[in-house]
Design goal:
792 residues, alpha+beta, eleven-stranded mixed sheet, 22 helices
Length: 792
């Protein structure tokens, strides 16, 4: 056609607008554009939409233009003009050319897909759904309202309606206001006036990128997602990540535009910007035509406790023109989950004889330990059923029932579900395929991703579970060996530190702990980011551990195809006041960060959104520095993208030196008053210090040895200046995560239950000086060697 169908439809809608309200016009335009999604793709790639495939031999000759004479179709060969394909399709077509020989024809769908050893059938009385979103977009508050909506006729432990974040039960989750671990809760929902009850398993997931592994491991347990998007902010970095993973697994989505009652959201709702951004995100992530792009949109205010599918009704409540009625309760969202998300698929294995029960199989998504119940596992049952006292065995990820390492069997001692925030036993103790339950009495060696199956009726192979994304950072953990070791903590042995780290990896799939290659007394931990590793350190210090933490290092790898060394790259999104946008761009794109700006958007409220892509090492310690140059107005979010070829080394030319203590004792106000003229202090009068401890940041480059314990000299002389009162500025305080990004390669972090201290690896000043000279000599020799190679 001469005009794109989407453009033609938009023109038709615009011509008939007349005096139509802006909200109605925007909604009509959205519906029109949504109905043209399939036609739009056929318009862009008519030959591919009609079923034509380029012959693999063509890929060896041309990568830009494909003529219609080279297009193959089972029955049709019309004369089409030359078709120019987008560059992103060439890798896919090249792989197809390598997979199939040029002399052979392309196989049919029946020949290329292996036969499954089981059949799938739906279980209509259950729904399994995950609530996913970016951090601070309202996931946990939405789960609170869903629990309250379903608790009217059930005994579910929920707090008062004014309570917030019921699912965030951890100590650190309550303090920081974020979700750290995924949690599942179960409700039995019955529509108003209906007689049929449906079990809905709702999983609350973290929204921070560092805890994305919690989302990865539970996606195999659900059949659909509720994507929560802040109407004012729109899709963010973690929104793209969790949605992309969900779409690749074929999950059905429901979009929830949250916080619709805020004034800053009205304009974006009226002109349709919020919905258009979500639609564009689905298109960019490759959502399938029918199942994933035709998603329902629900306008919600989780804080206000109302939900509706009518945009005009949402705008009326947001502007105060009307009050939420009984048709705008949160039960509407539960009904949408029942109507639009598919029921769980139950496996029926073909090799089971008629009349015999199907084998029990269950994947482990969460592993825990209870002092009364022992080892517990939470996961989804894929086939068969389980009862109390049944004998079950363990299949490791990727193994089969013929594996000689098959773990010994154990008997199920209890079957539990979470109702609200409390764990309750199932009555009767029986669960079947499609349920998400917690089993007690499982084999002790079980890990996340493993499969549990009945001992008397084993399945052939372990159920495939998606692997988590690779780690991006590593840190060395060890016992505290400083002068103040053992004074504040109760667990100081390096073996105890290693045992605790290994125990953490049982359930946290994104953490890996291995012995250090440079020090036998230390343990190297691989994780996803500073926040995740910082939360681990904070949990250990609250348990009484004293430990040393080395600076984080970026995890690098070697590409098998190119042989290049690769490193993780991340997408960073910064929302900042427009007056500081230039400063943020200079900071991110400078030699110290090496990031590239990909997007820049201005909003009506004076904010600017900047999107960058750069190496993960360039984001270490970025938060405090960005807060300083933007006066605290910047909001930074980042998410892992992929491993790419290593970027040039980062160079920080304006790095300030450290103020290092030269003596041990208690810091005095008199000495700190003299030292404060040299830079910014990290300690207060009375704090214990020792030689080699970093007590502040200098105003110039290079470290400076200072004496913070020197006392005022006592004499009989009386002068006016001798009786002056010492007034010190408040010291600069760091969190564990900020220290991790702040410390340098020659420093370590000393963490105890009461204190967090930054110190040099080498406490003796003479040893540090010799190490610095040796490092400079090695760098000079390397430069001379490289310059000699260039001359040749």
């Amino acid at each position: 056609p001469s005009v794109c169908p989407t453009v033609a439809t938009s023109r038709a809608v615009a011509s008939s607008r007349g005096n139509m309200p802006s909200s109605s016009y925007s909604r009509l335009l959205l519906r029109a554009s949504g109905s043209e999604r399939r036609r739009r793709r056929r318009h862009r790639y008519p030959a591919l939409a009609a079923g034509f495939l380029p012959h693999p031999s063509l890929l060896l000759r041309s990568r830009s233009t494909i003529s219609s004479s080279h297009l193959l179709h089972p029955t049709l060969t019309p004369p089409l003009p030359s078709l120019r394909l987008p560059s992103r399709l060439f890798p896919l077509l090249s792989n197809m050319g390598r997979a199939y020989p040029l002399s052979s024809s392309l196989p049919s769908a029946e020949e290329s897909s292996p036969a499954l050893a089981f059949a799938l059938s739906p279980r209509s009385d259950v729904r399994n759904v995950a609530i996913v979103a970016h951090v601070d977009h309202g996931k946990t508050t939405l789960v609170d309202r869903l629990l309250q909506a379903a608790s009217s006729d059930q005994e579910i432990e929920v707090s008062a309606p004014s309570a917030e974040r019921l699912m965030d039960t951890g100590e650190l989750e309550v303090e920081r206001g974020i979700t750290i671990t995924s949690k599942v809760t179960r409700v039995d929902f019955r529509r108003r006036g209906g007689s049929r009850t449906t079990t809905v398993n709702i999983i609350d997931t973290p929204g921070h990128a560092d805890f994305a592994g919690e989302v990865d491991r539970i996606l195999s347990s659900v059949d659909g997602i509720v994507l929560v998007v802040d109407t004012a902010e729109g899709p963010m970095a973690q929104t793209k990540y969790v949605l992309g993973r969900s779409l690749k697994m074929g999950l059905r989505p429901i979009v929830v535009l949250n916080k619709c009652d805020r004034t800053e959201c009205l304009r974006r709702l009226e002109n349709g910007d919020a919905e258009l951004e979500v639609m564009a995100l689905f298109e960019n992530l490759g959502a399938t035509e029918e199942e994933q792009t035709d998603y329902p949109t629900v306008y919600v205010s989780a804080r206000g406790g109302w939900a509706t599918e009518d945009l005009d009704a949402a705008l009326g409540v947001a502007t105060g023109e009307r009050e939420p009625d009984e048709n705008m309760e949160m039960e509407l969202l539960l009904g949408t989950i029942l109507d639009h998300l598919p029921p769980p698929s139950v496996r029926s294995y073909h090799d089971v004889e008629d009349g015999c029960p199907q084998p029990f199989s269950m994947t482990a998504t969460t592993v825990g330990y209870d002092p009364y119940l022992g080892r517990t596992v939470t996961g989804r049952i894929h086939s068969g059923s389980v009862s109390e006292n049944d004998a079950i065995s363990l299949l490791r990820r990727g193994t089969s029932s013929d594996d000689p390492s098959l773990a010994a069997s154990s008997n199920v001692s209890g079957i539990f579900v979470n109702r609200g925030v409390s764990r309750t036993p199932l009555d009767p103790p029986y669960a079947e395929a499609g349920d998400i339950v917690t089993l007690a009495g499982v084999p002790h060696a079980v890990a996340v991703g493993d499969t549990l199956t009945s001992t008397s009726n084993l399945i052939d192979e372990a159920i495939d579970t998606p692997p988590p994304a690779p780690p991006t950072l590593s840190m060395d953990f060890g016992a505290n060996d400083g002068p103040l070791a053992g004074r504040e903590g109760t667990i100081v042995a390096s073996s105890k530190v290693r045992e605790r780290l290994l125990a953490e990896t049982d359930n946290n799939v994104t953490l890996q702990a291995v012995p250090s290659t440079t020090d036998a007394e230390r343990t190297t931990v691989f994780g996803r980011g500073e926040l995740q590793l910082g939360v681990l350190v904070e949990q250990m210090r609250r348990e009484g551990f004293e430990l040393l933490v080395a600076p984080p290092r970026v995890v690098r790898d070697i590409c098998l195809h190119t042989g290049y060394e690769t490193e993780p790259f991340e997408e960073a999104t910064v929302d900042v006041d427009a007056e500081f946008a230039g400063s943020v761009i200079d900071l991110m794109t400078g030699p110290a960060r090496r990031a590239a700006m990909t997007e820049m958007h201005d909003s009506a409220d004076g904010k600017t959104r900047l999107v960058f892509e750069g190496p993960s090492r360039g984001l270490l310690g970025l938060g405090p520095e960005m807060a300083a140059i933007t006066r605290g107005s910047a909001v930074l979010h980042h998410a892992y993208v992929e491993h790419r070829k290593c970027a040039p080394s980062t160079v920080n030319e304006n790095r300030r030196g450290r103020l290092v203590s030269s003596d041990a004792g208690a810091a005095t106000a008199y000495a700190l008053d003299l030292v404060s003229a040299r830079g910014t202090l990290f300690i207060r009068p009375g704090d214990a210090v020792y030689g080699g401890m970093v007590i502040g940041e200098g105003s110039r480059t290079g470290d400076l040895e200072v004496n913070p314990v020197r006392g005022k000299q006592l004499t009989n002389m009386r002068t006016q200046s001798k009786e002056e009162r010492v007034v010190l500025s408040p010291p600069r305080e760091f969190t564990v995560e900020e220290y991790m990004g702040y410390m340098r390669d020659d420093e370590v972090l000393e963490v105890t239950p009461k204190s967090v201290r930054l110190r040099k690896k080498l406490l003796d000043a003479g040893e540090r000086a010799r190490a610095t000279r040796a490092k400079k000599q090695a760098q000079k020799a390397g430069q001379e060697k490289n310059s000699g190679k260039k001359k040749r």
